[in-house]
Amino acid sequence: MVDDRCRAPGQPLQAACAMEYMSCLRYLKPSVYKDGDLILGGFFPFYISEIQSVHKGSFLIRPIQEVVNNWFTWKNYQYVLAFYFAIEEINKSPHLLPNITLGYVFYDAFPSDRRTLENALFLLSGGNHLLPNYNCQTYKQPVAIIAGNMPTFSAQVGTLLELYKSPQVISFLIQVTYGLFDPILSDKDQFPSVYQMATKDSSLTHGIICLLLHFGWTWVALYVSDDMQGEQFLQDVKAKMIEKGICVAFTEKLPPTKGVFFPRDLILRTRIRVSSANIPYFFHGSLLFSNQKRKIPGFKQFLRTVNPSQYPEDFYFSKLWAHFFLCALAGSLCGKIGDCPPNSSLEFLQSYLDIMTVSDSSYFIYHAVHVVAQVLYKILLQKIEMRSPGDTDQLILPWQLHPFLRKSQLTNSIEYNMILDENRNMIQYDIHNLVRFSNNSWLLVKVGDFVYRNTHDHDLVIHEEVVNWPVKFKETPKSVCSQSCVPGFQKIPQEGRPVCCFICVSCPESDISNQTDAKQCTQCPAQEYSNIERTHCLPKRVTFLAFEDALGTTISCMALCFFVLTAVVLGVFVKHRDTPIVKANNQALSFILLISLLPCFLCSLLFIGHPNTATCVFQQLTFGLVFTVAVSTILAKTITVILAFKARKPGRTMRCLLVSRVSNSIISICSLIQMIICGIWLGTSPPFVDIDSHSESRNIIIVCNKGSVTAFYCVLGYLGFLALGSFTVAFLARNLPDAFNEAKFLTFSMLVFCSVWVTFVPVYHSTKGKFMVAVEVFSILASSAGLLGCIFAPKCYIILLRPDKNSWKVLKNRRGFK
Question: CA separation (Å) from 345 to 320, 321, 324, 341, 355?
Fold first, then answer.
């Protein structure tokens, strides 16, 4: 590409041309300027820094000295080209800023604080000399500055420009930044003239959290830059991690990148490392969030055709051309090196520069120019509307841009809408995998997308099959403090450790957890129970003490058998009603007792089968009333024995009581009292049908709720009171000398009766479900059978097996008659 005067084919540059080439590359001016009606300023980074540690002198005195080497990065020259393209597009537009030409001036943003501020002072002072507080330049002052690839640079330049408000310099210079969003720069009290084109990366925080949750990484390390932006990011991401149950194993602050510039799309903004002690931190296998590649209509065609001859004032463009093509175009600073072929183009630069791909910063620079141009257009329209006839002044001062920049919604030539406030959000990111090859080359491989709409609406797609993890991982890395709790278990935090460190405990009975890492188990509804694995709730089976059950069948058979046996005894007594043993101790009371025992046995059947309102009411009332009749009959029989013995002694009082059958009235009085108690029970809180879903874990039991428990125990207590009274009277009369004296049998029967019901109370309350009903039924049958057996079995024995003893002659002998 260089003619024969400078280099023979296959030979290096000749000495004269080589010297001129090196002289061209060393050519340096503080700025590039092109005049116009209005001037836009810019600061663009063309250098990156490499910091090397060098041992110098004695280790005890000065062990390490840092040496900074600056390297020119031509990739960043795309910023200038985007700046040019936007200005030319505006100057050619008949609708935006008509009859006004935009000019420009831009400076290199050096990777050092001193050089950065030095160029800013060049901008303010003019010329090639630094004269603070004086403006010696002959060209126009810019109305706005496009600057700030790095937040630290924006802060430095913004602070400096805010200081100069004297007459020598137009006050309140506008700075529109194109670098990463920095929350510090959004503080209008500190930086009132700084406007950021980049968005606030709240969406990026959500993306990182979604990525961690996707891979199940809940135990991670965070590396952030040791500056305000890194601190802000750390606070945001930690707050979000706490919400999602992600823990930070440790946090490492990296040296700040102040003064070191990289293209925005090459910065590894998010590097995630699993916390494994034997894994070094390296870049291979890292994951990177980056905004989707921007598109500027017509910009690629512009890059293919642009060359230094179109911008003779730009010595950087000439240096780029000479550096890569070893030639120069006519009229450029390096024009003597050699002529370039007509097809030379930026499109043919080395692939690692990737200058044809629009970077984020170039995209924002392009739009920043359009934003300023639209604001200038609105200001000019306002001036035209307000100016008086003959006034042709169209001078625009930088401070006049503020109201429009703060309030206006601006649209550029490609319908890109933006509002310059802190609430803007990017909606889509590409997720790349950084891969290193054996030849030490690197490649960014797209492995997914993250689409952000709002806080509650975002999507993450990861193609795990194409992700290259660090070499020590054979599969997707795991990063947890504790292994996940499978369904059926719940997490129990460990005291003094982060929430990600926990133990897994099985859910208790009737509780479930149907998801991994459940914070607590969920109780099944009352109508359901948990399966053995404690992962699902199953419907409970409806049950009750049915006739078909073995227990129900047994109880039914027992009740019927005792009923038949009682009926047989009653028949025997009716048949032998004229015998002495039947007539002894009041024949009528024996019949009443036998008849009352019949419903006592039958009432147990009311407790079996599907409960309904009628059976629930009748089972308790029948139980209470028939047992009251039975027990009060025994009390009357006992009193009859006592009166019969007393009647043998002189005196008519006892004989009158015995003849008048006062003892029979006891049954009526005692039964009446019980009926009153039952009436009160029915009137206040009667029994009703209820379901018991707690007694048995897998069954819902249909039971009769007693309604008023107090009334139930009043019925039972009154019955116990009668039984205790009967037992006492019978016990006192057990040894009275009388023929066929049944006081001993009455005493024993009441002892059995009281023992059954005293045992009933604790056993009843210690059982659950239908077994409570069974206990009550067994108590009814046992106490009734006790009365039947203890009182009537001895008499039936004499009647049926020893009829010789059932005669009046034997009766007279026992009483002592001759």
Answer: 11, 9, 11, 10, 11
Instruction: For tokens 């309140």, name the residue.
Output: 172
Angle at Cα 557 formed by Cα 553 and Cα 558, nearest 5°? 120
250: alpha, beta or left? (left if phi > 0; alpha if psi -120 to 50) = beta
The whole-number pLDDT of residue 140 equals: 74
Question: Nearest-CA neighbor of 79 among 321, 359, 307, 325?
Answer: 359
Among 158-167, 428-437, 615-624, which stretch is predicted with the lowest mean pLDDT? Answer: 158-167
Q: Do the bridges between strand 511-512 and strand 273-274 make them parallel or antiparallel, or are there none, so unpaired?
A: unpaired
Is there a contact between 629 and 595 (Cβ–Cβ < 8 Å)?
Answer: no
Q: Residue 125's pLDDT is what?
A: 65
Cα dihedral sign, 362-90-312-124: negative
The structure tokens listed for 252 are: 């490492």
**H, E, C per residue of 745-774:** HHHHHHHHHHHHHHHHHHHHHHCCCHHHHH
In the predicted structure, residue 329 carries a pLDDT above the cut 80: no
Compute CA distances 591 → 252, 564, 745, 747, 753, whole Å: 99, 15, 16, 19, 19
Token pair, residue 769, equals 């479900």
DSSP tag of 340: P
The residue among 104 and 405 whose pLDDT is bigger is 104
- H, E, C per residue of 410-451: EECCCCCEEECCCCCCCCEEEEEEEEECCCCCEEEEEEEEEE
Q: Which of 162, 565, 231 is nearest to 402 (CA)?
A: 162
Half-sphere exposure of 798 (CA within 13 A, CB side): 17
- Alpha carbon distance 158, 162 (integer Å): 6
Token output for 58:
């004695």
Provide the 3-class DSSP secondary structure of residue 577: coil
pLDDT in tens, 60-97: 334 444 444 445 678 888 999 999 999 999 999 888 88
What structural domains and CATH numbers belong to the chain? 1-30+317-344 (no CATH), 32-45+68-199+359-388+397-419 (3.40.50.2300), 489-539 (no CATH), 550-815 (1.20.1070.10)
* Residue pLDDT, tens place only, 332-359: 666 556 677 777 888 888 776 778 888 8
Task: Kindly write down the DSSP assignment for every residue of 132-198, as one continuous string.
Answer: TT----SSPPPSEEEE-SSHHHHHHHHHHHHH--STTS-SS-EEEE-SS--TTTT-TTT-TTEEE-S
Q: Which two tokens stand for residue 810?
A: 């034997």
As a whole number of angstroms, the distance between CA 44 and CA 110 comes to 9
Is 69 in a helix, a strand, or coil? strand
| Three-state SS sequence of 194-257 | EEECCCCCHHHHHHHHHHHHHHCCCEEEEEEECCHHHHHHHHHHHHHHHHHCCEEEEEEEECCC
Tokens standing for residue 265: 């799309």
Number of H helices, E strands in the chain: 20, 26
pLDDT confidence of 132, banded at 50, 70, 90?
A: low
Phi then psi for 394, rounded to 5 degrees? -120, 25
Residue 3 has pLDDT above 60, yes or no: no
Model pLDDT for residues 733-774, shown as the tens digit of each residue: 777 665 556 778 888 888 898 889 888 888 888 887 788 888
Residue-wise pLDDT for 658-672, tens only, equals 444 566 688 889 999
For 740, the 3-state DSSP assignment is coil
Whole-number Å distance between alpha carbons of 187 and 155 = 11
Residue-wise DSSP of 256-317:
P-TT----GGGS-----EE--TT----STT-EEEEEPPP--TTHHHHHHH--GGG-TT-HHH
H-type helices in 326-420, by residue range? 360-386, 402-407
What is the identity of the amino acid at 435? Answer: V
How confident is the prediction for the chain on average, in pLDDT? 76
Q: What sign for the dihedral angle of Cα 75, 77, 80, 84?
A: negative
